Amino acid sequence: MEKPKPTLPDPQPGNLPRWRGFNLLEKFVAGTSGPVPEGPYHERDFEWIANWGFNFVRLPMSYRCWAPGDPVRWTELNERVLKEVDRAVKYGRRHGVHTNLNLHRIPGYCVNPPAEPLNLWTDERALEAAVFHWKHLAERYKGRPNREVSFDLINEPANVDEASYVRVIKALVDAIRSVDPDRLIIADGLQYGTQPVYGLTGMNLGQSTRGYMPMNVSHYQASWVPMSSEWPAPAWPTNWMNVTWNANTLRSFAIEPWRKLQEKGVGVHVGEWGCFNRTPHDVALRWMEDQLKLWKEAGWGWSLWNFRGEFGVLNSGRKDVAYQEYKGQQLDEKMLALLQTY
Questions:
Q1: Beta-carbon neighbour count of residue 34 at 10 Å?
Q2: What pLDDT is stored for residue 4 in this prediction?
Q3: CATH class for domain 20-341?
Q4: Nearest alpha carbon to residue 122 among 157, 160, 158
Q5: Rounded distance, CA 35 to CA 81, Å?
Q6: Which is nearest to 18 in space by CA: 260, 252, 262?
Q7: pLDDT tens digits, 143-194
Q8: How crowded is residue 249: how many other Cβ atoms within 10 Å of its Cβ?
Q9: Which class for 264: exposed (0-12), middle (13-18), buried (19 or more C-beta within 10 A)?
């Protein structure tokens, strides 16, 4: 007999649920010369996530999985790949897991290399293509309840002023709401998701923050972070950038600015966080626990980067963990137990 599917909360942009879950990366990157998808999402991930007591997945996606990277062809869509996203949303509904769709790479911007050929913040052609893609997604999921699916517009905007960012977000929001007026929409904070955006407070949006500070703990020896291989092995609490970091520091830097945004009627969720596998496991878990306690105190949900992989609970490749075999995967039982606690 199947156990009853949990009832998902009914989210409101001014009061986001304390969703807890993971980022799934099947469409995180694609080929630079055309749509080369990494593969479909796995229903087993949704099943395991739900069985372990979580209710949220964020899907950070590159538009290049279903459209070419050439601006001339930005609006050519690969329906076969988009149907794989449709199936992920269905998996979420089937297993009682909210699915949050995010454009990690959108026409004109991505926080990761390679750079887009045009600039979303300054080039109208890029903005038109970005509007096209979000409007199309809005059409695909029109009528699906917000408790099942939501949109997270642009991953980690950086090197852009607030006015330019707000202008782009407004164009995307207007396009989505022209199709699906009540869709739940979330916008990432500025400066890689770390700073609340007060210029968006009148748009009836939630906002997404991050949980990677301090970087010497979360990204120790991460190959894509300059100089991280030269940092000393981290401890927790730690010293970083001439600041002593502990739970109180995290509260001051990463909680209080967003609590002030909440007071203006904006719901907050931690869209990404986690600790790369080179940080000693005991250090990672102590740091993670302090983050989780603070978010629970604030009433915020969170989404670990990632589920399977170097930051995750499965197949993380840590050298100082005694893994438990779980259905062909290597499970970090201590990390999973910690996440389930908060």
A1: 14
A2: 60
A3: alpha beta
A4: 160
A5: 9
A6: 262
A7: 999 999 999 999 999 999 999 999 999 999 999 999 999 999 999 999 999 9
A8: 17
A9: exposed
